[in-house]
Amino acid sequence: MPRFAVALAAIAVLLGGLTPARAAIVVTVDQSAQRLAVTVDGAPRYEWPVSTARIGYRTPNGTYKPQRLARKWFSRKYDWSPMPYSIFFDGGYAIHGSYEIKHLGRPASHGCVRLHPDNAALLFALVKDHVDDTTIVITGERPEKVRAREVDKHEPHRVHRAHHVRETALRPNSFHDR
Q1: Is 68 part of any domain?
Q2: What residues contact residue 153 under an 8 Å CB cut-off, 6+ apart?
Q3: Which residue range(s) make up the domain with 109?
Q4: Cβ neighbours around 160 below 10 Å, total
Q5: For residues 49 and 30, is the Cβ–Cβ distance under 8 A?
Q6: Helix/strand/coil (H, E, C) string of 50-96?
């Protein structure tokens, strides 16, 4: 009987190796810091600069699951802009690569989360193998909103308003009359 138990345990171990490894992946985007962090099974794996929504647009906060992945995608809404390695999480919102790498680390997008294309490819491959075990968390606000609240409320504030400058035509000889 002990041999049977040992054989059964050995078979269970061997069959256990045939099941795919499950990894809990959490992708956290902090809009305040313009950073994306990836943890796998609770251990920090990656952290990269991103660009989220610029003024006039929004990146929606919340907790999401990947809805679909597209290795090559082009935005129909924004002039066929390339969106390599897209991980869509809320309708048309996605985490994707961007060739506008000089803007990474500050808000610059129409609402998507932009990454360096190399980092987007790495994240895409990781999520592709574990779609069902991936959670995407978007938090924070655009940095300028955070900084505006940090200003001392007792100090006088300067209000910056857009002034429309109207050019007037100069009268002939107006410079000579002075």
Answers
A1: yes
A2: none
A3: 21-148
A4: 6
A5: no
A6: CECECCCCCCCCEEECCCEEECCCEECCCCCEECCCEEEEECCEEEE
Strands (E), the chain: 25-30, 35-40, 43-49, 62-64, 68-70, 74-75, 81-82, 86-90, 93-97, 113-115, 134-139
Q: What is the pLDDT of residues 3-51, one digit of tens each?
A: 554 444 545 444 444 445 567 999 999 999 999 999 999 999 999 999 9
Rg (C-alpha) for the chain, rounded Å, is: 26
pTM of the predicted protein model = 0.67
Give the whole-angstrom CA distance, residue 92 versus residue 132. 19
Tally Cβ neighbours within 10 Å of residue 29: 22
Q: In terms of C-beta density within 10 A (0-12 exposed, 13-18 middle, 19 or more buried), how is residue 54 classed?
A: middle
- Pair type for strands 113-115 and 93-97: parallel
Tens of pLDDT, residue by residue over 109-168, are 988 999 999 999 999 999 999 999 999 999 998 777 655 555 545 544 444 333 333 333
Tokens representing residue 65 in the block: 């699951």
CATH of the domain at 109: 2.40.440.10
Please check whether residue 162 lies inside any domain of the structure: no
CB-CB contact of 85 with 123 (8 Å): yes
